[in-house]
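**Fold in tokens:**
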Amino acid sequence: MLHIKFKNKTIKGMSLMESIVTIAIIALLSTIMYSSYPQASSILGFNLTSQEIISIIKNTQMYGSSQGGNYKGRGIFVQTETGFNNTITEFLDIVTDQSNNMGVKVSNKYYDEDRDAILAKNIIKNSITINKICAYDTSNQTCLPSTKLSVTYIRPNTEAYIYYNFPDLPLTTTSHASIEIKSNILKQDNLKCIDIYESGQINISNKGC
């Protein structure tokens, strides 16, 4: 034990062994802290990004229900194809040359890349991708896997027009669809499910679809 005398007072210091043990404890705590930081950061990024996606859909709903003129509404379009499964396309649904029985020009209510105007292509960050798209049969709520999903909101209502596409089949409408997003960094709890209903309801859950 080290003893230091100052004006007849003795101050006891730490022994070599005590110093080594203290340094070892600090090193261990530092290792635990820094090793858990990437995991915590990835979880936070996943949660924030999923909320951003929800905000995009809800903003589309809000603006679409008040859109007018040559644009009958606004919508989002997503797909699961590799290379495009990290993008959420926002679009304006342009009216067609056809008219309904009241003489009012109508839109086709889904994303048509040859005619509709693209507002934004939102790139999903934090190594998150669209993992799966489900459309649901109203009779049994079984997931019908799809490669594409178009959701459009048309003035003056907040209800959604939901169209999905099976491989090699034309677009088909449904009353409920979901988008499963995946964190490609996290090993556990790496899926979230965004449910979109024809009624206008939008939910998110911390599990796969």
